[in-house]
Amino acid sequence: MMQMGLLAGRKKEGKWQRQKKNEKISHFPHVLDCPITTTRTTTTPATSMSSITYFHGDLFSAPEGAILAHSCNCIGSWGGGIALQFKKRFPRAHKAYVDHCKAHAAAPEALLGTCLLLEDTAENSGAVFRIACLFTSVGNSSSLARIKRSPQDVIIRATQESMTDLGRQVDKGVTISMPQINAGLFCVPWEETEAVLRGFPGPFHVYVFP
Hints:
Elements: E1 52-56, E2 67-73, H1 81-89, H2 91-102, E3 115-121, E4 128-137, H3 152-169, E5 176-178, H4 190-197, E6 204-208
Parallel strand pairs: 1-6, 2-4, 2-5, 5-6
Antiparallel strand pairs: 3-4
Helix pairs in contact: 3-4
């Protein structure tokens, strides 16, 4: 069930690093605070593996109307990595996410394993997307965070549960676009999350940095 309707975004062209002349929103890879290795393909798009197809490039170049999923903490912070890019492009969705977390501030762990599905218009293009906030960790990786990120096994279990919750809210067979969720600030090797996704029908479009 859609929980909000909102607005904003302009699709970028060319290579990942190229910016339009007046583009104020910048892109950068996940800022990692842990040593991890992620699996990347070498073609665009790559060969479909089960229900997962890999693309080199920008998640936000997905077609208008796409579902953009990313892993979130339960304390209302999109402060780094790909989450920060969501915050810049979708400020109304960010506010709805923060408000949702505030409503559960007394017990943020109650959000773990759930999915908040929002609709917003990208701030830099006007394209409308649905945004799936997958609550896979209670806290985050910031050294200033009062609540730290969850252990890896908890994140993996919450990923499975939040994907199940997302499945209840969308039509069967709809494509889910995402980065390599959990593999950035949550420090979970991508292969672990990929194994979870293979248990779902998908299809999934996973965007990786070139």
